Amino acid sequence: MAAPTLTTPTAPPAASGPRKRKNIFRRMAGPFIESRGVQRFMLLTGLTLTLVFVFMAIFAPLLAPFHFDQYKDAAGEFARQAAPSARNHWGTTVDGFDVMSRTFWGARTALEVMILAVVFSLCIGVPIGLISGYVGGWTDRILVLIMDALFAFPYLLLAIVASFLLKNTIKSGIVVAAIAITVVYVPQYFRVVRASTLSAREATYIEAARAIGARPRTIIRRYLFANVVQSVPVIATLNAADAILTLAGLGFLGLGIQPTQAAEWGYDLNRAVADAGAGIWWTALFPGLGIVLSVLALTLVGEGLNDVLNPTLRRRKSRAPKIQTSAVGPASAPVVEEDVRS
Amino acid sequence: MSRTAGSLRGYILVRIGLMVPMVWVLLTVVFLLMRVAPGDPISATLGGKLSPAELARRQHALGFDKPILTQYFEYLGQVVQLKFGKTITDGQSIGSIVVSNGGATLELTIAALLVAVLVGLPLGLVAGRYRETIGDAVIRVFGILTYAAPVFFVGLLCQLLFAKNLNWLPASTQASAIVQATAPVTTHILLLDLVIHGQWGDIGDVLKHLILPAVTLGLLVAGVFIRLVRVNVGQALGGDYVEAARARGVPERKVVTRHAFKNALVPVVTVMGLQVALLLGGAVLTEQTFNWPGLGSQLLKYLNNRDYIGVQGIVTVFALVVVFVSLIIDIINAMIDPRVRY
Fold first, then answer.
1. Which residues 298-327 of chain A have a CB within 8 Å of chain B?
2. What is this structure's pTM?
3. B159 contacts A277? CB cut-off 8 A
């Protein structure tokens, strides 16, 4: 059997060069090099903010002045709902927690849930999409029906119901939140992956693989997967942003992580509703900014990638000959653009 | 393609036919989700509060001791008759909850949709027309921000700024207590009732209460519109027919308004339908933020009381609304755009 190549047929000739390492770096940096002007600025802002967010999440224990459920220090208990001061830089909450510490620790919770949710949805959504698209027939029809029904469902309600039901069964609030979010996002991966599988299935190289006697399993794993999976980074980034919002929404409704398990921005905002009436702004502002900035960061990265990788959005006159060298096949691109948010 | 497939009536019939499996899958998903959790709804809700004998009696009365398949078919049968049962905790029928609280949600969502259209379409058109300028970048960032900021955070900031600091608008609820107490009840939609009974003096009060929630929820959806209209205008301006119009010597202003904008707005109708899901999910959060007496706050009440029938009923109603609205939008879309009737 001829050695199957893992690089995509639409990839630039340079990608089949002798040194694999360099290729990977070049392809990762590709979107950035190809961007320019406003696009590059947005991508750069997004990447910077994302790095800050990840840094905050990883080093929360070092950066935060206190632990997230600490309500006193050596000098005694913190005052409740105290305005920002030298002792508590961003004030304290109604429970007497330090807002700054909870905001920093909240980044860690958000990152944990986000990673779990994206990994879960990828592990479920991509294989189902591949199988559904490649096998076709009744399997495909039934899966599409179920996924479409889930997709049409108000996403927050789905997450609410899922976490409502799981809350008593699974102890870890982080896992519950991640599963609830996964239920929402599997249909999106499914749709995108299935759509690109459908178009890739008819490609000549798949036909060639079939002609030399490759089994469906081999075709899916070695040929389709590598090709189809390239449409995933954009949705994965955008979904990661969405995951933070959904987590916060659940927390805000009191269905998220228990306050003793971890600091969570949505829960803190829930507690801040009563404060707003009294003119207390610091309990709402800082966790809220945490959500906005982290979602903004990931969205900018996702949109930046989408803009650069999606040739149909480019202006006609700009770099017309280079369109062919995009990393994502045109077939998968419009789906990403249209479906991911609706 | 047969002749009936291209006709409007044929399309509507097919579309309604497709709705049946969709609704069926949705109902099954709701039912399964609610039954996956261990234990039956009665003991989950009232367990520990009642004696075992009393629990068993109530379980029997509501049919929860029957085999799961029987329960499933009974549930489907009830939904077909639009009966959703009575809540466990306070014995209200879901129908009466929808009647008395649905009006508030309807008022909020329609006002929000109005805000979204008024804000989203013009900004999207401008951004699409002047792509890759500073104005475009500003509008895009605004669009991303409206998406990145969770509704409850925006709502809290609005409350702090406009209600607390500036004292321009009321912070929460649907109307002043006196108006709510004296308002006549005909349609259960407060604003409409006041108009019908000619209580013009109170309308100002209700509208004032409506502004902050409607803007908060509307901005969320406006972001989606901006994004979509911008992309569509960009694609339309690159279209062959626009080039053809230019070649014929049609003035640029006319090319943009007559040719590009018109075609760019057609898909917006479809997306508006899809936003119903987003709108309803956002409404749950907005209602919680502004203490709005709608279906979302009812859902939350039953969630907190672990009332399975209440949650299941309201979620089913939400799902049916989404499916029904998307049916209507699709039909409208088919009337506008003949290409849809495949």
1. 299-300, 303, 312-313, 315-316
2. 0.79
3. yes
